[in-house]
Amino acid sequence: MIFGCTKAPAPKPATTPPTMSPEQMQEAFTKASTPGAEQKLLAALVGDWKATVTMWMDPSKPPEVSTGHSSNILKYGGRFVEMNYVGEWMGQKFEGTGLWGYDNIGKQYQSTWYDSMGTQIMTATGNYDPASKKLVLGSTMSCPMTGGPVNMKQVITVVDDNKHIYESYMTGPDGKETKTMEIVYTREHGCKNCDDKKCKDHKKTDKKKK
Q: What pLDDT, on a 0 to 100 scale, did the predictor assign at position 4?
């Protein structure tokens, strides 16, 4: 990407845990490990998805458009959502794996991403805005121009049960935030409440009506 990189802030120091009884420790661990509404929100991303990817490598040129497929599954009792993506990028096969979760202790959403086109593991944290239905995450990634971690913003918008949109933004040399990627995910075969007769759910509904 041609956009400039901004340095990531230094991590906050860890806090010292308080002295707790065995009962208090058990209660704390149970509370921290129990899935809730936040994990249920991420479950909306589970399923098989067709992906349409638009990338702005150079703002003076038309964007690059490609397609792919994402298979997202629940992990460990609904605590996490794992994404496995397969597609093409610049004429080459592209594969990536992501993981989404919500930290009940830190009160924030978290994600990781790694793929076949790099050697880094990208991490992100953020919050969900129910009014706009947007999950906004601040992430870090290795930048070849600075030789270190840089800042990046990711936005996931849950449109409905059958569609969600991923967007990424970076800060350019002029300090302005620029959109670098958009991925539109539409649910493949088995869409919830859709009118596609090829979908499994639609066929099941038709059989019940008969």
A: 39
